[in-house]
Amino acid sequence: MEKKADYTELVVWQRAIALVPEVYKLLKAFPAAETYALADQVRRAAVSIPANIAEGQARQHRKEFLQHLSIAKGSLAELHTLLIVAQQVGYINGDRLREIEAVLQTVGRPLAGLINRLRQG
Fold first, then answer.
1. What share of the chain is helix, strand, coil (3-state, %, to 5)?
2. Could you tell me if 49 and 79 are in contact, meaning their C-beta atoms sit under 8 angstroms apart?
3. pLDDT in the model for residue 60
4. For 7-120, which CATH class?
5. 3-class SS letters over 15-57
6. Which of 44, 52, 113, 117 has the CB geometry, 3.0–4.6 Å to 71, for a possible disulfide?
7. CA 106/CA 121 separation, integer angstroms
8. pLDDT surpassing 50 at residue 41
9. What is the Cα–Cα distance from 50 to 34, expressed in whole angstroms?
10. Cα dist. 72→31, 66, 102, 113 in Å?
11. How many CB atoms lie within 10 A of CB 105?
12. Helix pair 38-58, 62-88: axis angle to 10 deg
C-alpha cells in the first residue's frame, strides 16, 4: 500500500505557511486601534489558508480535500480584499500591496492547480 503524502510536502501548503509571517510583519504598521478589528480579520484569513490545506489533505476522501481547498481559496480572496481595504484607508501603501499581491499569487496559482488536478481525477 502506498503511503499518503504529508501535507507539509505540498508546495502550496509550504507557500501558504511562508505567507503568514509576511502578513504578520505587514500588520505591525497598522494602528493600535486596528488590533482587534481589521488586523485581526487579516490574521485569521492568512492563517486559515494553510490550516484548511492541511485539514483537507488529512481527510479520508478527495471530496473533503476539495472542500477544504475551496475554503482556503476563499480565505486567500478574503485576505486580498482585506489588504486592499487596508491600502484604501492608508494603512499600507500601493507598493507594499503590490509586493504582497505577488506573494498571494505564489499561493493562488498552485492552489488552483491542485484543485483542478483533484477535480480531474
1. 80, 0, 20
2. yes
3. 85
4. mainly alpha
5. HHHHHHHHHHHHHCCCCHHHCCCHHHHHHHHHHHHHHHHHHHH
6. 52
7. 24
8. yes
9. 24
10. 27, 10, 17, 13
11. 13
12. 160
Please enumerate in sequence order all residues whose Cβ is within 8 A of that of 14, keeping only pairs 6 or more positions apart, or say none. Answer: 8
Amino acid at 116: N
Q: Measured between alpha carbons, how far is 60 from 77 in angstroms, rounded to an integer?
A: 26
For CA atoms 33, 41, 43, 109, give the dihedral sign: negative
Residue 28 pLDDT grade (very low, low, confident, very high; cuts 50, 70, 90): very high
Q: Where are the domains of the chain?
A: 7-120
Please name the residue that has the C-alpha cell 478574503.
Answer: 78
pLDDT band of residue 4 (cuts 50, 70, 90) is low
